[in-house]
Amino acid sequence: MQDSDRKSVSILGATGSVGGSTVDLLLANPERFSVEALTGGRNVARLAELARALRPEFVAIADPSCYGALKEALSGSGIEVAAGDKAVCEAAARPADWVMAAIVGCAGLLPTLTAVRRGATVALANKECLVSAGDIMMREVAAAGATLLPVDSEHNAIFQVFEQDRREAIEKIVLTASGGPFREASLVEMANKSPAEAVAHPRWDMGAKISVDSATMMNKGLEVIEAAHLFALPEDRIDVLVHPESIIHSLVAYRDGSVLAQLGTPDMRTPISYALAWPDRMPTNVRPLDLSEIATLTFSAPDMARFPALALARAALRSGGAMPAVLNAGNEIAVEGFLSGKLGFTGIAELVEEVMEAVDPAAPDTIDDVIGLDREIRAEASRRLDRRVSSGARLPDADSAIEIGAGRL
Ligand code: NAD
Ligand code: MG
Predict the structure, then answer these.
(1) Which ligand is located closest to the Cα atom of residue 206?
(2) Is the pLDDT at 405 greater than 80, yes or no?
(3) How far apart are CA 280 and CA 273, in angstroms?
(4) Which of 45, 126, 191, 239 is found 20 to 30 A from 171 (Cα to Cα)?
(5) Residues 84, 64 contacting (CB under 8 angstroms)
(6) Which domains, from first to last, does the chain contain?
(7) Ligand 1: residues within 6 Å at CB?
(8) Which atom of ligand 1 is the closest one to the Cα of 126?
């Protein structure tokens, strides 16, 4: 096959969990894809290993202090190396047909937007950028004629069964939620949970931040906001259903009583492959779904009292304006605080709520407004976090603190 027949792809956040699943699919299908650019945060060894395996034209690492080590690790490879936030955006600007947006947090906003602005097909894993800047992002997608393909498993499921041409026949969408590792824990038990317990997700192997978000169910809240933008639906037409087996990835309910769902083994390679091959489908090495082996699927309504983060996210979506960006920035600081042992598990939602109640910023009109707002709210949340620490708020076992992105990234 000629090189020009291959789809050229870039991965933003290649060294992370979604990045790794994407790499797996590329390595298994070398005849279908060529790699234009890869980015990582600060894990030089992993990024260099991926670059040697995938032979991209360009590699960027966000942490500028990693430049020398990456350059050395790739010496003689002929691969161009750069470092810093601008370099990550430069990677997104390079002419790949398809870009995986898998940087975690609001740090992914500008790189994702850079790919959108050149009209690329963007596979979107980075939900935080839609939470913080959903209206602006969706406007930019339309203006650039870009294609946004949802990779988050729930949104990818909905995308697969959402009849775009019959929107008026859709009553609501239902996002399923595993309920995370503390699905059955009491609030008192949750208050003592350590970072190591929070990141040990029962169904999915994911990055530290999203694992904590799953444990608080803030992840589902962020996903409700993400769905509102991707599918242009109001908050009251997006339901959440706890489904611990994570086999049904989400559902769409139609006015004739039909409910369409997408099912599969919980493995991110399925939604990623759907985005990679779209509108076609490609083979994966995902374990086939055997429902007779699973036998029972269970469902329940989310418990809003034990998982207040979900209610906070719904409130932020209903308020609109700056509130979703406030929620997101407050949550990013709270999760970092929890992972570094400064904040107890139940303190995460408390801190987010405190920040949401304390501020009332103007709605952002531009991406620069969003970035300024994100910075301001992070500073506010960090001040409040430090105040809690100095007032001696009770902490979980400090020995179990996990540095965010430790090791792998
Ligand atoms: P991860 O922590 O494993 O990886 C994050 C990636 O972002 C890494 O490559 C890291 O180096 C990079 N990164 C971190 N900070 C950066 C910065 N400041 N600048 C540039 N790069 C930076 O996270 P993940 O689990 O792969 O999740 C990535 C995104 O996908 C998140 O938004 C998450 O919510 C979403 N998502 C993940 C999963 C999953 O199964 N892991 C599922 C659905 C959605
Ligand atoms: Mg999800």
Answers:
(1) 1
(2) no
(3) 10
(4) 126
(5) yes
(6) 3-151 (3.40.50.720), 156-390 (1.10.1740.10)
(7) 13-19, 40-41, 62, 88, 102-104, 107, 125-128, 152, 204, 206-207, 209-210, 268, 405, 409
(8) 32
Nearest residue to 153 (alpha-carbon basis) of 124, 111, 122: 124
- pLDDT, tens digit (0-9, with 9 covering 90-100), for 331-342: 999 999 999 999
Counting from 1 in the atom list of ligand 1, the atom nearest the Cα of 152 is: 43
* Dist CA 219 CA 198 (whole Å): 13
Q: What are 148's strand-pairing partners?
A: 122
Ligand 1, atom 42, lies closest to the CA of: 152
Tokens at residue 348, please?
């995460």
Longest dimension (CA), the chain: 65
Q: Indicate which residue's Cα is closest to atom 31 of ligand 1.
A: 104
For residue 394, the CA-to-ligand 2 centroid distance in Å is 31
| pLDDT confidence bin for 201, thresholds 50/70/90 | confident
CA distance 355 to 247: 35
Q: Which ligand has the nearest atom to the CA of 178?
A: 2
d(CA 254, CA 269): 28
- Using CA atoms, how far residue 322 sits from 133, 136, 267, 315, 373, in Å, is 9, 12, 34, 12, 8
Q: Which ligand is nearest to the CA of 153?
A: 2
Which residue's C-alpha comes closest to atom 10 of ligand 1?
A: 41
Query: By three-state DSSP, how is residue 194 classified?
Result: coil
CA distance 11 to 7: 13
Residues 6 or more apart whose Cβ sits within 8 Å of residue 129: 101, 106, 108, 109, 112, 113, 137
